[in-house]
Amino acid sequence: GKNIKEEEYKTKLTISPSGPGFIFKWVGESPLEGVGVRQGNFVTAGFGGKQCAFVAYEIKPDGSLDGKWGGLGTVTFGSEKALKK
Questions:
Q1: Calpha distance 10→68 (Å, rounded)
Q2: How many CB atoms lie within 10 A of CB 60?
Q3: Sheet of strand 42-47, all strands in order from the earlier edge strand to the far edge
Q4: Which of 9, 15, 37, 66 has its CA 20 to 30 A from that of 43?
């Protein structure tokens, strides 16, 4: 990858199932741990340790959002719908 300064870096990423989601671990010089969710053909991950949380939305044809949310250590996901005004 490249950081925000456009400097290249290499790391190892492991993804493991965890309840309804996944644990993401970036191993290397700056290790990180996060939690992710799959929504269709997309996977999203939030990272930052024990305070890590995420929300992933599917954009529906009418503009509404259909989402799943949770955090590191989540046993089940919450759900959320956002309607366009």
A1: 30
A2: 13
A3: 12-18, 21-27, 32-39, 42-47
A4: 9
- Position 14 scores a pLDDT of 92
Query: Looking at the DSSP assignment, which residues form a beta bridge with residue 68?
Result: 56, 79
Token pair recorded at residue 70: 């949770």
Whether 54 and 44 have beta carbons less than 8 Å apart is answered as yes
Tokens of 46: 């939030």
pTM for the whole structure: 0.69
* Residue listed under structure tokens 């009418």: 62
Q: What is the distance in angstroms between the CA of the first residue and the CA of the last residue of the chain? A: 38
Counting as low any pLDDT under 50, the low residues of the chain are none
Q: Which of 7, 27, 25 is nearest to 16 (CA)?
A: 25
